[in-house]
Amino acid sequence: MKSPMPQNPRTCVIAEPLFVIPYNMYTTYASVYMLQTGLTSVQLGWLTTMNLVVQMLSALVSGYATDRMGRKKALWVVDLVSWSAATLLWAVSHSWWGFALAFFFNGFQRISTTAWYCLLTEDTPADIRSRVFTALQVVATVAGFFAPIAGWLVHRTGVVLGTRLLYLYAFASMTTMIAIRHRGLRETNIGRTRMAETRRLHLRHEWRRIGAAIKTLSRNRTLMWLFGVYVMWNVQISIRTTFVTAYQMDALHIPPSFMGLLPALSSLVMAVCLATFARRFHDDHGYHWMQAGLGLLTAATILLAISAPRSVAPTIIATALTAAGTVFANPFVESLVANAMDDAERSTMLAVLNVLILLSSSPSGAIAGYLYAWNPRSSPVFAALALVASLVCAEAARRARRRLPTG
């Protein structure tokens, strides 16, 4: 008989639709919206890089802030800034400065990400963590079926007004989610211990812990390669969400109304994959599922890169492949990294992970912006290269783990 899901991950899973439904709705049109509002692709690329730099700085202190404030309070306070305030600014901005402030506020999300991750995993047995991340994947899958509403709205009102309305809805929904989730969460045992310890320690002690975590990482080849997977995973997500959608609409000339249907198609494919394969998702075979998913995502991105303008079929096939690849890869990218960390040092190790992610991905926004201005087709090519790097790191992690002593 399967163990019941603990209260914290159960609360996060239940509240998650209030985040992922509006997020899926506006993210399809976000880059095109800002480009049509007057930003150039180079400006958008630099704003993305600025956002990632702020994320990197917040990641540096995320372990200390999460330990000092407690996981629950850090999640509540920082989410209000990085999501509620940011989506409201995105909704009402008419100039570069307004969008810049929204990207700046959103950059603090790394503190709440660390807190959320700790709340999900710290009091959760290792053998059911993949089930938690699969449940979150199911929620994200169902949320995608609401995306055609965004397509209908944008078709009726235009990209700019429609996306502004979607951002306003995101502000209301995410703020409600933050309040509901805060009431249901409980501080973790490790969180209470770290709060008591951190009250007696200065921030410089956290720098020493970060240095120790980096030494631990350098000695753990499996974890090092898994961090590589996670870094490249986030690089390709950053490129795909910022420029690949714009590439599909601007270069491939896919109508905005049709783009609104793609998340629903993605959710349908995800639902079929989950219904067919979820029972076979076990951590013992995590590397195989992760590599299969990364392979499908790579194929999908390459297909978009070689598609001819106004070719709807490759877009549909690429969407289906991306959905299947995400279902296979995402739960195990998350759970394999989570299980490779020591619980007592999780917040600091996550801070190191986030810094590595952002050091690698921060330049990618500006680079992708310049490449997009030169040739929009470069965006899926760039994302495909990041996915290939993820595959290489995943195989290296699998081999390193296999060489570990079993006693």
Automatic annotation (TrEMBL):
Domain Major facilitator superfamily (MFS) profile stretches: 1-401
One Pfam short name: MFS_1
UniProt keyword annotations, A-Z: Membrane, Transmembrane, Transmembrane helix, Transport
Domain of life: Bacteria
Subcellular location as annotated: Cell membrane
Major location category of this protein: membrane
Topological category with respect to the lipid bilayer: Multi-pass membrane protein
Transmembrane domains' residue ranges: 12-32, 44-62, 74-93, 99-120, 132-154, 166-185, 223-246, 258-277, 289-309, 315-338, 350-373, 379-397
Gene3D superfamilies registered for this protein in UniProt: MFS general substrate transporter like domains
PANTHER family in alphabetical order: C-METHYLTRANSFERASE (PTHR23518), MAJOR FACILITATOR SUPERFAMILY TRANSPORTER (PTHR23518:SF2)
Protein name: MFS transporter
